[in-house]
Specification:
The complex is a heterodimer of chains A (265) and B (260). By secondary structure, chain A is α/β, with parallel strands linked by helices. Chain A contains 10 helices and 9 strands. A 6-stranded mixed beta sheet of chain A has the order 5-6-7-3-8-9, with helices on both faces. Chain A is globular. Chain B is of the alpha/beta class and 260 residues long. Chain B has a single domain, classed as 3-Layer(aba) Sandwich (Rossmann fold). Chain B has a 6-stranded mixed beta sheet, sandwiched between helices. Chain B has a 4-stranded antiparallel beta sheet with strand order 2-1-4-5. The chains are: A alpha/beta (265), B alpha/beta (260). Chains A and B meet through α7, α8, α9 and α10 of A and α7, α8 and α10 of B.
């Protein structure tokens, strides 16, 4: 399988309080064209920095060593056209004073060379694809008129408007309730399959990652701890840290903590 | 039989949205026994947080009764309400938003001890150190600013502040939702230890059924401001009867379910 992108010896350093902090340390990994890869980790693991580095969205003050090649693309990617990005908080990524139809149409207008009428027609189709209840009304709605889940659907429509090869979702469902989260995850899975996109899914939730992704990469303190098939990571982790994450996961069958053996705090 | 620690009956709160009146909480009744954990679960907008605010009397209900420690809690006002608040504490999702970020840890813990007249000025530093140790922190954290410490440490400080006034009930509103997995487990264990030792009851609001099955004795599942079902946490999560209960269980991510 060809790699869509290939990350080699990637180190990202932020300047903070006069010192330097390495947010990513010496990361090498390939993302295959058409695969669903989840990157999981806790705060400070570097998972979001990885997403920003792949998308070319790191702040100018970050120092980047190593390289990212795009053999599956054949050229340097352009954000918005070749890479769609969905963030955790759709309110922060959508313009509060622009109708959502225009925000989606703008992507098609800018990157696909469509005229405005065609761009709006495309926006309407996309609102239908992300299953907004009334796409015609939604075209003219402002973000504040939509629920959190609906806003995230709009953000996904804008992210895929130019037909990107890679869709990055950075904690895109973390602020949503469980039921809406499941709906958005199902939507992402369906869109990625239908359009043949590659998915980079950043999450703190190992169970959610295991349900959605074919492969999981586990990050901690800016380093890649292990990477493997989702089933292997969940059932036969090679690294003690991964095991500790699995132990800390509280599933539906979680035994009451009062009955569990464990060290008191 | 003695009356429950907290009993809520017919609780109703309506909000006006444009020309429409929406019942955020509609005729909700439940009770909590001493030393018990009752969880409130439900999707966004189901009324969980509004119930927490009503029980804490941060907002006033349109109808219903709340009895707490044998008293008509809604009839209390002024000094009587302020003094009873010591017995009913709260911990929210984001302690950075709940506290003055520039206050020191010592200041955050000093306030309740002073306001409720629990310890004299001379005695307070010792009490603050003891509270920090009780929640698994070292006393040398006292002079640090709230914004300087980690999210897990902040939530421990919030718990220390809540137990400072020796409450019989603590309301937790998504208090562990923003924490890393490893930290979350430690905090949940701490809550369990405190409950066992001090017989504190918890009203525990969470959207996460995994957390609820680990910590709660009973659960109330809410949908659009009303109770869809309630019962033993294990029994409800194993075999939900209501449509919303079934939807919540089905939507919860599982480690061993890989979809095609």
């Amino acid at each position: 399988m060809t790699a869509l992108l290939s990350i080699r010896d990637l180190t990202v350093t932020y300047r903070r309080d006069g010192g330097e902090v390495a947010a990513l340390k010496d990361i090498s990994l390939d993302i295959a064209a058409g695969e669903r890869l989840a990157v999981i980790g806790e705060s400070g693991s570097g998972k979001s920095t990885l997403a920003l580095a792949v998308a070319g969205l790191l702040p100018a003050s970050a120092r980047v060593d190593g390289k990212i090649d795009w053999p599956g693309l054949g050229h340097t990617p352009l954000g918005g056209r070749d890479i769609g990005f969905v963030f955790q908080d759709p309110s922060a990524s959508l313009d509060p004073v622009m109708p959502v139809g225009k925000q989606i149409a703008e992507v098609a207008y800018t990157h696909l060379g469509l005229g405005w009428p065609q761009a709006y027609a495309k926006a309407r189709t996309l609102l239908e694809r992300v299953r907004l209840p009334d796409p015609d009304a939604a075209l003219h709605a402002f973000p504040h008129q939509l629920s959190g889940g609906q806003k995230q659907r709009v953000a996904i429509a804008a992210a895929i408007a130019a037909g990107p090869k890679l869709l990055i979702a950075d904690e895109a469902t973390s602020a949503l309730d469980t039921i809406v989260q499941a709906e958005i995850v199902a939507l992402v899975r369906q869109l990625v399959a239908a359009d043949g996109m590659t998915l980079l899914f950043i999450s703190h939730d190992i169970a959610l990652a295991a349900e959605l992704a074919e492969r999981i990469a586990v990050f901690r303190y800016g380093g890649l701890i292990e990477i493997g098939a989702a089933r292997q990571i969940v059932s036969a982790p090679r690294h003690a840290y991964t095991s500790s994450l699995l132990d800390a996961h509280l599933g539906l069958d979680a035994e009451p903590l009062s009955l569990q053996a464990g060290t008191p705090t | 039989m003695s009356s429950p620690l907290l009993s809520v009956s017919g609780l109703t709160k309506r909000y006006r949205r444009g020309v429409k009146i929406i019942a955020a909480v509609d005729d909700v009744s439940f009770h909590i026994e001493t030393g018990e954990t009752l969880a409130l679960a439900g999707p966004s907008g189901s009324g969980k947080s509004t119930i927490a605010r009503l029980v804490l009397r941060l907002v006033e209900p349109d109808a219903g009764r709340i009895r707490f420690e044998g008293e008509d809690f809604l009839a209390l006002g002024g000094a009587a309400l302020r003094s009873r608040r010591a017995r009913l504490q709260m911990v929210f999702q984001d302690p950075l938003a709940a506290f003055n970020p520039r206050a020191t840890v010592a200041r955050v813990l000093d306030d309740p001890l002073r306001v409720h007249g629990i310890a004299s000025r001379q005695e307070r530093p010792r009490r603050i150190a003891a509270l920090l140790e009780r929640v698994g922190l070292t006393p040398d954290l006292a002079p640090r600013a709230i914004h300087e410490i980690s999210g897990g440490q902040r939530q421990r400080v919030a718990i220390a502040r809540a137990i400072a006034t020796k409450p019989s009930l603590i309301v937790f509103d998504e208090a562990v939702s923003a924490l890393d997995l490893s930290v979350r487990g430690q905090i949940l264990r701490l809550l369990l230890d405190l409950q066992r030792e001090e017989r504190i009851a918890y009203l525990f609001i969470s959207h996460d059924l995994g957390v609820i099955s680990a910590i709660a004795h009973r659960v109330v599942i809410l949908d659009a401001g009303t109770i869809a079902e309630s019962g033993n946490a294990r029994a409800v999560i194993d075999a939900p009867q209501s449509a919303i209960g079934k939807a919540l269980v089905a939507a919860t991510p599982r480690l061993n379910r890989t979809r095609p």
